[in-house]
Amino acid sequence: MNTLYIRIAKKVDNTVFQVVDGQKKYWDPTxxxxxxxxxxxxxxxxxxxEIANSGNFQLAPTTFEVKIDKEKKSKDGQGGVLTACDPTFxxxxxxxxxxxxGKSNVKRRSPLSISAMRPIHPKLANIxxxxxxFDRRGRxxxxxxxxxxxxxxxxxxxxxxxxxxxxxLEGAQKNFHTQFLPDLQQSTGIFVFDMAIDLNRLFTVKYxxxxxxxxxxxxxxxxxxxxxxxGNLFTLSAxxxxxxxxxxxxxxxxWRITSNQSRNFSMMEILAVATxxxxxxxxxxxxxxxxxDEHAQLVLSDDAFITxxxxxxxxxxxxxxxxxxxxxxxxxxxxxxxxxxxxxVTL
Length: 347
Hints:
By secondary structure, the chain is of the alpha+beta class. It folds into two domains: 3-59 and 80-127 and 185-336, no CATH class; 131-184, no CATH class. 22% of the residues lie in helices and 33% in strands. It contains seven helices and 20 strands. The strands form seven sheets. Strands 1, 8, 9, 10, 13, 17 and 20 form a seven-stranded antiparallel beta sheet that branches. Strands 14-16-15 form a three-stranded antiparallel beta sheet, covered by helices on one side. A hairpin with a 6-residue loop joins strand 11 (146-147) and strand 12. Helix 1 (40-55) packs across helix 5 and helix 5 packs antiparallel against helix 7 (323-336). The model has no long low-confidence stretch (mean pLDDT 84).
């Protein structure tokens, strides 16, 4: 098989995946409720950042074009955003890239296909609303400014109208060192996401004038960096694959949403991991079912690597304190034994 499938269940506590109207969500038409989710793109970004952190890898630079009007000597809007299109950077090798300009047409499809991280069942996740405040009452160097709500101009604190306003206020209304925030939304529940890793593309790059993944300049760089070449296919050397694979697996297992899109931190501990080159084995290994009373429960098969944390949500008797390490070893084994440069069979 040329594809490795992975499903991971995580427990999420009071966190925000992405701040869009408080929390990114979709509507479930079967159970008639909004459900939170994290996009596959955000999951992929977090995984690649964790891979880079694990191996101390340098991420590729990005070129931001800015348009300038020479006559007016001023900025004239935004231009394009160009990536390096260089697979010697780990984020380009794993995340893919595309630059389509007047001078070049280079693109590489990512070998990692990642689903959205969504509730494993609508009844096992929820969006909660909370109140919040920006409270600085304990400081004696705060500054209070009064602003005219119509003109937006500042009103002098000694203006007589300020005294009239203060006389009209009662109790907590006179507290100007706290601002109350609108309702905040955050997610809690059991979530799952899926990955499909194209093993043939994971460590290979094709040089083809009809389907260009790299430029002539990058091709020469790959040769200088010791990539193996067979025809128009360049493959990362076996030594570098052996070095990189454990970091890839660590990124898949250890990532958290820690970007500035997440307001609250959650450990997002893993409950179970399932992996196989057979997609049907993975899809059924971690799932949810309704009992006779229509209560949803987490169901984990013996084929999954089940952590001790899962005991709070599942009746599985196969939980293990070494589940994460066992899953790590299994995924490393499956990634390592695949030969990305194997020849295709003809009949």
